[in-house]
Write a structure and sequence with these properties.
CATH topology: 2,3-Dihydroxybiphenyl 1,2-Dioxygenase, domain 1
Number of helices: 2
Low-confidence stretches: none
CATH architecture: Roll
Structural class: alpha/beta
Distance between the termini: 35 Å
Radius of gyration: 15 Å
Helix content: 10-25%
Amino acid sequence: MALGHLGINVPDLVAAKQYYDVVMPLVGYEEFFAASDEFSYRPAGGKPGTFLFFYPSTEAGDYSRHRQGLQHLAFIVKTRREVHAIHDAATALGSTVHIAPKEFPEYHPGYYAVFWLDPFGHMLEAVCHRPPES
């Protein structure tokens, strides 16, 4: 079985769409649809995978990855170069980089990732599971 989709509430749907329209193609996603009250992405090129839906928050309150609920989203990319490109894009968008690109041998050899925060505090990760490119 696979995870079909995730729904994420954000306090500013317009700002979220502008941000994720830049980020999602870098992690292999394309727009699925956009409406005034939600927008979504799917794996690009008809590949199987989890869809992401974004909705406006209906209750006030700040998100925290330290409370119960979503801790972070990790996106698999093919190369370490892509990890760096995503780091560069997140930095250009003004995101806070939580952990700059590096290897995490405690997970497994070749686990190379960057962690950053979106404008609403959601932690995102781009990870390559392959050894360095030649």
